[in-house]
Model the fold of this input.
Amino acid sequence: KDKITAFIVERAFGGVSHGPPEKKLGIKCSNTAEVYFDNVQVPVENLLGEVGSGFKVAMNILNNGRFGMGACLTGTMRMLIARATDHANNRKQFVSNLREYQGIQEKIAKMNLLCYANESMAYMLCGNMDRGAPEYQLEAAISKIFASQSAWDVCDETIQILGGAGFMKDVGVERWMRDLRIFRIFEGTNDILKLFVALNGVQDVGNELKKAGAIGAVLKLAKSFTPMSGPGPIKTKLHSDLSNSADMLRQDVGKVRDGGSSAGYKTQEKIIEQQITLNRIADIAILLQSMAAVISRSNTLAEKGDISEIVLANAWCTDSHNKIKNLLDDLSNADIAKADSAILSVGKLSLDSNGYVAKSPISR
Done:
């Protein structure tokens, strides 16, 4: 009685109806409507899977939707980068084209790196699935989180580079922004999936975390990274120009496994409720997976004589290495914990007052 069972329900059964299409912010070409069931009789042969396995069926459907986002949004990011670079190459501001300014070069670089890391993880995930990997829900969740956030960031920067023109409907980029907003929500919100990555990265890790605290979470996740990509991402035969990136990944995995400075970590009770900590752990997991993916991809190409992507892999790994260091430091920093507590207190005040906390200066 307490379990969910899945069925295939057909309109021809009778009692199935739907409401009008919802008016949405984006993806307007896809109809969204409420579905109503009124005493619908479903024959037993329409059972999907086994009785009580409906939740597993639903999760498998979500996994399949998540893994596709990485590939889908790679195409979106490629298009956006093309629009941004075309504008930067041809738009003259003062005496120079936009492309000559470091601020624009930095934006374009970060957009390319996000797209490259996302595409690399998507291909790695698809490769594991093609090889018949029985478990890939963690990788699918990571791919979905990273792809949806990266595509949003790339679109936002594209509009910024285009300036006022990017804000105009006729240019078309605003439609991509409206369409992209849903990707951080459906197939499981990024907020919930980050908790999933942090708490369920390995079998029964949720129970272990209750005893091990934050450092236990990091340790459990670290042990799951190398096998997650099939053959180890750091191969013995590695192109010499990738050695620094591979060393950084080894160092980061080692720091996570060893817990960094063990004296800085304290066991946390009720870790499941420590969502700020869990978000940091998930961010570490995502960055480690992305580093492994770009090293593996660029090294595979280098073995075939194409070293053009090594610069992308090295740039991504260097940036990710620094981010992981900061995240690990934050997990053991008492001042960061105090700052987190202060921020949470403001959130609680706002919720208690059912709105903005501060009063208007004019009303005093």
Q: What stands out?
A: The longest strand covers residues 16-18. Residues 201-233, 260-268 have pLDDT under 50 and may be disordered.
